[in-house]
């Protein structure tokens, strides 16, 4: 199998990206907000609480993401996802990762704890003619299991969690009326102090504790969150920025087509699939 190390780099970077995105938009914070203008803040908190409740009614959606990640660069992705259980179908592009394979983009599918990546015809030349790489997180030891658990608990980029994260900030405010991709929206913004969040959520569930721990590991002390909400109290766009010990993270997600139909993932044929755990083992011994 040729250039196995390059293929492992792509897969490992994808794992790191998944960890960052699940951390950045996955807190299950309280629906409280405080500030000097008590009446105004209360109305904003009410609006955010309504958005959280409305979004929670839906289990599937389409989304477009642009992410700037340290050491990886700019990643763009688009597709659809559903939660409870987690299922995702995305097309991802990143020059630094895909250039190693000679591919313009990578198709990704995920169901539960298993991810599949189609590396294209160029990638197939390095996978003995096989187009798909299978990544079963359960086979990647404790770290893989922890990442799988975090993604399934947080539902990846579940927008209702981003709303709860924003609502937890003490300085949440209404920025104004803005049009996003042709949709009239109300823009809200706030900055989340991760240490204060950890203190006020000392008795939080394991999902929130996991997110707080990840933020600590990344050296993330604060996170700025902006959200644009439409007339149905559903999020149209979420923008999150933070500084970490690895560098700055900047993530923008746009949502549409909210529904309740699960995303169905059909695994690719085993004859056209290579297992990442086996390939990683071979790369270490080569």
TrEMBL record:
PROSITE patterns: PROKAR_LIPOPROTEIN
InterPro entries on file: LolA/LolB/LppX
Sorted UniProt keywords: Signal
Signal peptide per UniProt: 1-18
Protein name: Lipoprotein
Lineage: Bacteria, Bacillati, Actinomycetota, Actinomycetes, Kitasatosporales
């Amino acid at each position: 199998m040729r250039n196995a190390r390059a293929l492992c780099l792509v897969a490992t970077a994808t794992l790191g990206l998944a960890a960052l995105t699940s951390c950045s938009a996955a807190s299950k914070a309280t629906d409280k907000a405080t500030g000097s203008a008590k009446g105004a803040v209360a109305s904003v908190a009410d609006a955010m609480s309504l958005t959280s409740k409305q979004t929670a009614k839906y289990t599937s959606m389409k989304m477009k993401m642009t992410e700037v990640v340290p050491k990886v660069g700019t990643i763009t992705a688009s597709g659809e996802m559903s939660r409870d259980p987690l299922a995702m179908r995305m097309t991802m592009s990143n020059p630094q990762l895909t250039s190693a394979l000679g591919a313009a983009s990578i198709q990704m599918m995920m169901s539960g704890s298993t991810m599949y990546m189609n590396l294209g015809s160029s990638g197939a030349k390095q996978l003995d003619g096989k187009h798909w790489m299978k990544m079963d997180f359960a086979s990647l030891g404790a770290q893989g299991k922890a990442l799988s658990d975090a993604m399934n608990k947080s539902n990846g980029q579940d927008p209702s969690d981003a709303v709860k994260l924003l609502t937890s900030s003490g300085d949440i405010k209404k920025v104004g009326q803005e049009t996003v991709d042709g949709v009239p929206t109300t823009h809200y913004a706030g900055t989340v102090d991760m240490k204060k969040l950890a203190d006020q959520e000392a008795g939080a569930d394991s999902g929130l504790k996991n997110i707080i721990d990840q933020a600590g590991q990344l050296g993330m002390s604060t996170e700025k969150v902006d959200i644009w909400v439409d007339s149905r109290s559903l999020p149209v766009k979420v923008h999150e920025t933070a500084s970490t010990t690895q560098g700055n993270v900047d993530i923008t997600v746009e949502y549409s087509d909210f529904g309740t139909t699960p995303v169905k993932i059909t695994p690719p044929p085993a004859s056209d699939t290579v297992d990442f755990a086996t390939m990683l083992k071979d790369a270490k011994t080569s």
